Amino acid sequence: MPDFNPRPDAAAHRPPVEGSYGAALARQNARLSVLAEAAEMLMATDDPAAVVGRLFRRAAEHVEIDVYFNYLVVEDGSHLRLSSCAGVAEAYWEGVKTLHFGQAACGTVAQERRPMVIAGVQGSADPLIAFVKGFGGNAYACFPLIAGGHMLGTLSFASRRRASFTQDEVAFLHMLSHYVALAQERAHSQRALATALAEKEALLQTKEMLLRDVDHRIKNSLQLVSALLRMQSRAFPDPALRQRFNEACRRIAMVARVHERLFRSDRNGTIEFGAYLRDLCADIAGSLALDEARTLLVDAVAVNLPTDRVVSLSLIVNELVTNALKHAPMGAVRVALGRMEDGRVFAEVTDEGPGLPGDVPTGSGGSLGLKLVSMLARQLRAEFAAAQGPDGRGARVRVTLPS
C-alpha cells in the first residue's frame, strides 16, 4: 500500500473555483463523468477492492483529497481489515491493519452504519479522530459500505489542504462509496455462487461415486444369489421345478446385468436409454444363443431417462424380449423405443409367434413374465397395452411412460 501524493497537475484537471453558475455546472458534470467511469470500472472487475486506488486518484482530480482508507469486514464478521489505503506512510498505517467495531472513526462508522463527516480535524480533541489528526488530515469523511442490508466495510477520505468539504463534495464521495459497496456485494455474491456450485459439484460427484458403489455391490450380490440358486436347482429331480428355478436365476442375472451397466455408465442422474437398450438386447441375444431362424431387431431413438426408470424399463424389456424369443420359434422379434406425438416415451416389443392369451391386455392373466411386466408398469405409472399382431398372429406389447 504505497504512499500517495496527488499528481502535480491535478489542479489543472479541476475547474477553477468560481462562484459562477457555469463553473459550478462544469464541476458537477466533471464529477458525474468520474462517477460514470467508476461504475464502468467497478462492473468490469471481479475484485473491486483492487480498483479503489484508481478511483481515489480520479476523485482527487476533482476534490482536494490526499488520503483514503478502505476497510472490509472479515468473513466471520468479527472485525474490520484494512484492504487498501494511500496518502500515508506504511509505518503509520501498520498499527491500524485491523479495527474492532466501534474503534476509531472507521470502526464507529461500521458499527453505527452511518457516515461521519468532520471539519477542522486539527482543532478537535475528539479521540475518535486522533488517528486522522495524527497524519495531518483536516477535512474528513467516512462512509459505510452497505449493500443488500449487509455491512461490507468503510471507505474514508481526508484532505490536509482543506478544513472542510462542501455538501456537493460530500455527496460526490458518498456516491462513489455507494458504487464501491454495490460492486463489492456483486463480487461477494459471485464468489458465494461459485463456492455453492463447487460444493454442489462435489456433492454430485460423491453421490455418483456412492451410486456406482451400490450398483457394483448389488450386481455382485445378485450374481452370488443366482449362482447359489443354479447350484441348488441341480439337486431337484423334477425337470419342471428345475426349469422354474432356472427362470428365476435368469431374472436375477438380468437384474445384475442392469446394475453392471449402470455401474459402467457415465451418468448424471439420467442415462441415454436408446444406446443402453441396444446393448441390453445384445446381451439378451447372446445369453439365449439365437439360431439363424430367429433374429432380434432394435430400433431406438435417443432418449434420456432417470436411472430409476432405466432399471424398471430394462426389466420390462428383458421379460418381453425373452418371452417373445421363447414362444416364437422362428421369425423376427422387434424392439422399438420412440416418442409419441405428445412427447411421451414408449417401448414396444413385437413378435411373429402364436399370439397372446385373451386376458393379457387387462394385466390379470398370462405368464409370470407378463404379470411381472404389468406390475413393473404400474410401478412406473406407465400404460401397459398388449394386443394380437396382424391376422391374429404374433403379439405387440407396449409400455408408455408418463410425461
Layout of strands and helices, then pairs:
Elements: H1 10-13, H2 21-43, H3 52-60, E1 67-73, E2 80-86, H4 90-93, E3 98-99, H5 104-112, E4 116-118, H6 130-134, E5 139-147, E6 150-159, H7 167-233, H8 239-264, E7 270-272, H9 273-288, E8 294-300, E9 304-306, H10 307-327, E10 331-339, E11 345-351, H11 368-379, E12 383-388, E13 395-400
Parallel strand pairs: 8-10
Antiparallel strand pairs: 1-2, 1-6, 2-3, 4-5, 5-6, 7-9, 10-11, 11-13, 12-13
Helix pairs in contact: 2-7, 7-8, 8-10, 9-10, 10-11
Kindly describe this structure.
- The chain is of the alpha+beta class.
- It has two domains: 184 residues, 2-Layer Sandwich (Beta-Lactamase), CATH 3.30.450.40; 136 residues, Histidine kinase-like ATPase, C-terminal domain (Heat Shock Protein 90, 2-Layer Sandwich), CATH 3.30.565.
- The strands form three sheets. It has a six-stranded antiparallel beta sheet with strand order 3-2-1-6-5-4, with helices on both faces.
- The longest helix has 67 residues.
- The two termini are 61 Å apart.
- The N terminus is likely disordered.
